[in-house]
Amino acid sequence: MMAHFRCIADLRGQLTESPVWDDRRKTLFACDINGQKVYEIDLDKGPLREWSFETAVPCLGLAESGRLVVSLAREIILFDPETLERQTLWDGYDEPETSRLNDGKIGPDGAFWIGSMDARPQREATSKLYRVTADGKAEIKAEGFEISNGLAWTADAATMFHTDSRGPWIDRYDFDVETGSMSNRTRIAYLDEETGRPDGGACDSDGNYWSAGVSAGVLNRFDRNGKLLDRIAAPVPAPTMPCFCGPDLTLLAVTSHRLGASETLEAAPQSGGIHLMQAPVAGAKIARMKGV
């Protein structure tokens, strides 16, 4: 499938990730993990505000209160972009210093789901997937990953997708929105450098799973059983995560990184920015964190 993209935020971030559509503010939030920043972006006007943090900022989500749920390298905080107030939500992360938190998203159960990653060059499958609730408690839901990634839920909240970027594979689970439990783990796809290692993910309203093929410069769309439905060329070599956005969730924002070779970046100077396309289908709405 061919798609027309336009750059809405030429951030040139080192590792831009975790785009989240705020349906109240009508803006997009995203982070630069290595740049230690969070951005607010208008889809037409571009970047509006930015905030700096003291550590890596792997991901973020929205709270019912309007605050942001922001993951730092080894803790999760609540951040009010209007007052700049910060409040620790969870600081019980006790994995080795060579690891950090990574991809995360608010689940339809109202909890913040977040995985970790082994940050060493020679990674081991020691990382975990956590479910963090408003009372500041975290439960380990799964473990044994090199880089936990790609969290997304279908619109009916009955299915959860999860990936390991270095597996590299995509798993599907049955999801119970009342209890936040996951079951019937099913491996639906194995990927490689050419097809695109699975980075961040999103679900559309048809129940399909969109995966940023970060190593191949593509967005891959799979059905629930892992059949490849579409392969869309991204406007930059390393897309990191798709996010359905806009008033009716029919636009698709894609973040990217600029960690490649200098000649690659010279050919794609807007790497590390955010690009927008018209989606062929609407997206599944992302929940807000309950109780905060």
From TrEMBL:
Annotated binding of a divalent metal cation, by residue: E17, N149, D199
Required cofactor(s): Zn(2+)
Gene3D superfamilies attached to this UniProt entry: TolB, C-terminal domain
Gene Ontology MF annotations: calcium ion binding; gluconolactonase activity
Cofactor note as given: Binds 1 divalent metal cation per subunit.
Pfam families in alphabetical order: SGL
Keyword Zinc appears in the UniProt entry: yes
One BP annotation, GO: L-ascorbic acid biosynthetic process
Residue positions binding substrate: R100, N102
All copies of domain SMP-30/Gluconolactonase/LRE-like region, residue ranges: 15-257
Keywords: Metal-binding, Zinc
InterPro entries according to UniProt: 6-blade_b-propeller_TolB-like (IPR011042), SGL (IPR013658), SMP-30 (IPR005511)
Active site, renumbered: D199 (proton donor/acceptor)
Family statement drawn from the similarity comment of this UniProt entry: Belongs to the SMP-30/CGR1 family.
PANTHER family membership: REGUCALCIN
Protein name: SMP-30/gluconolactonase/LRE family protein
Organism: Brucella tritici
